[in-house]
Design brief:
By secondary structure, the chain is an alpha+beta fold. It is built from 6 helices and 11 strands. It has helices at 3-11, 13-26, 32-46, 49-61, 66-75, 77-95, and strands spanning 110-115, 125-129, 132-139, 142-147, 162-163, 166-168, 175-177, 183-185, 193-194, 196-199, 202-206. The strands form 3 sheets. The chain has a 4-stranded antiparallel sheet with strand order 2-3-4-9, with no helix packed on it. Strands 5-6-7-8 form a 4-stranded antiparallel sheet, with no helix packed on it. A hairpin with a 5-residue loop joins strand 7 (175-177) and strand 8. The chain is globular, with a radius of gyration of 18 Å. The protein binds FE2/S2 (inorganic) cluster (FES). FE2/S2 (inorganic) cluster binds next to loops.
């Protein structure tokens, strides 16, 4: 939140409460990726760097790929114009996020992770598919799949980084909840969630 918004929250809590409730309610029927991409576009339109950095990370955490973020920016060209899109891309490059590295922008496809019956419940697994590695966690609610690359600087996190119910990135110590991918210590971004689905008894992920 910008300093100005934080000030208004304190100075006019009631009015600002209505404002935030309105924003939340306005996106109630959108799925998380769409909501996150719209938020990214609004930050680019307003050219608020702190907001853009914050919402790009949220979009990636919601499962957007770098390609989808770039597509959203380009689709918004009539509203943003080239100068704002170039400004946003400069911010993205400066963030050094693995999702925007040129080699990582390939179009994603559904790939088999494994037979559902072979995935144990309550135990984190690491699966490699070609050049990609993911963590899989299965519980009573289903399977969740996360990118095994640290959202900080892209370190490939090994399964041995698991300590109790947590994953500790060996490079700088960002720590994640092994079950939810949430960042629980040191860093400020979760493991990137990867879209997954069950089909014919197999777990598929969009890699
Ligand atoms: S690369 Fe993982 S904590 Fe820095």
């Amino acid at each position: 939140m910008s300093d100005a918004l934080a000030y208004l929250v304190k100075a006019r809590p009631e009015a600002m409460g209505h404002y935030f409730a309105f924003l939340k309610d306005a996106g109630r029927h959108l799925e998380p990726k769409t909501r996150a991409l719209i938020s990214v576009i609004t930050k680019v339109h307003a050219q608020t760097e702190r907001g853009l950095r914050q919402y790009v990370k949220r979009a990636l955490a919601a499962g957007c790929s770098g390609t989808e973020v770039l597509d959203a920016l380009l689709m918004a060209f009539p509203a943003l114009g080239l100068a704002k899109i170039v400004w946003a891309v400069d911010v993205l490059i400066a963030m050094k996020l693995p999702a925007f590295e040129l080699g990582g922008l390939a179009v994603r496809e559904w790939r088999e992770i494994g037979l559902l019956k072979s995935i144990p419940r309550g135990r984190l697994q690491r699966v490699e598919r070609g050049a990609r590695a993911v963590f899989v966690y299965r519980d009573a609610e289903g399977c969740r799949v996360y990118d095994a690359h640290c959202p900080h600087q892209g370190t490939d996190i090994p399964l041995e980084a698991q300590k109790g119910g947590r994953l500790v990135c060996p490079k700088h110590g960002w720590t994640f909840d092994a079950r939810t991918g949430a960042c629980v210590a040191k860093g400020d971004a979760p493991l990137r969630a990867i879209e997954s689905r069950i089909e014919d008894g197999k777990l598929l992920a969009r890699l």
